[in-house]
Amino acid sequence: MRLPPWAIEAIRNGVADVARKASDTETITRVKAQAAELLRDLPENASRGIDALVKTASETARGAIDQGRESMLRWTERQTDLAVRCLNAGGVLLSRHGSGISLSDHVLQLGCEVLRGDCVDNDLEQQLDRSLTRLLDVDGHAVAVATSLDAAIASLSVLAKERKLVMHRSQAIRLPSGTPLPDAFAGLTLTECGGVQTLEPSDFDGIDHACVILADDGMHPVTPIPINGRDVISVAVLPVATIHQSHESIPSAESLLRSGIDLVVLPGGPLTGGTTAGIIAGKKSLIESIQQDSRWNTHAAAAGIVAMTVAAMTAPSPNPLSVLIDTGEDNLRSRAERMATRLTADESIASCQITDRPARLVADARWQFPSRQLNLRHQTLSAEHWANQLIKQNPAVLTTIDGDNLVVDFRWLPAGEDATLADALGSSETTETAAAGTDDH
């Protein structure tokens, strides 16, 4: 994201002051310490401008700073930062290390305006609620936002007041948090039916006054089940989904609601263009019953999260992930070829081969997208040491390992980050001892 003007000005003034102080050789040691601190705190795009700013210093001072620059940068990369940006070259979007997908400026700006704390409260929550009721292109439906997917599922407990919760045994998936879906209904009695392999409509025969939980396991999409029982509502839990139907292969809340599902629960995040949250979409009467329950206060997302969710769903332009999904195969091939040419000329790279395996939204799931990869070998580093070193840099680089090769995939990497990735791959330590030393700091 771009730095605000006031932050850029503060950075420039601070670095310029350091440069002026460095004009005296007696203060060079102090300048080194200050520069190291600045390099640690500044974002990468701000630290790049330090070259121009130190030109005001004396020749002696510039030499001192240049001499220590490489060691300082290497040292600062090893420090523990609160939030380290990552480049996702791993070929899997939703990994345990993160997605590498940033929020759009539109979404982030609205969230910051609400979160900064100095805004007048003109019925903010009511305004957000009204916005949520208008998000779906399905009459009589609304949206509620919880703190997480697990919290959104837990909030469904209010539906069990007058109905029993029923789940087919084949639908007992594990949520992205690691929680088995049945355990997300803590404290409630869950009735199981059917076998663990396949789901048959007849498995639900004789079930009345029930809330039936269906889930997408990543291999089999959720489809409405014809249930003949009385007073039965159906809830679909989708760990991977969007609100509006924007990509044919990715399920959406709107399409399932139109097909007859009563409620859809999905996570907020890269796929929705928003931040981490739990989203409940469905019949307005059911949404209102959830929100009117006293337990909703413990599950409901803060106003800033709700505002960013609304902004993501109403953004005038495609979200960052949609841009990556829509990137053509020719574009990926050209980028891979250009980077291969650059890295082949690097003395530290022993070999480089382009492959065309598909990228995925989730490992071992059905969602695949055409992609291109570089299969790399380092002159001195093993693939494992190299991958560990890259993930500890700032920005961190997510990669995968295939045998003796380090694999970098282009599908989930914005084109504007290609140069940063190439720099990271070409600037690795040249010995396994150095890589092991990095692990000790």
UniProtKB/TrEMBL annotation:
- Name the keywords, alphabetized: Pyridoxal phosphate, Transferase
- Required co-factor? pyridoxal 5'-phosphate
Q: What is its EC number?
A: 2.9.1.1
- What would you give as a GO molecular function for this chain, any one? L-seryl-tRNA(Sec) selenium transferase activity
Q: Which domain of life is it from?
A: Bacteria
State the family it belongs to.
Belongs to the SelA family.
Instruction: List the protein's name.
Output: L-seryl-tRNA(Sec) selenium transferase
What species is given as this protein's source?
Stieleria neptunia
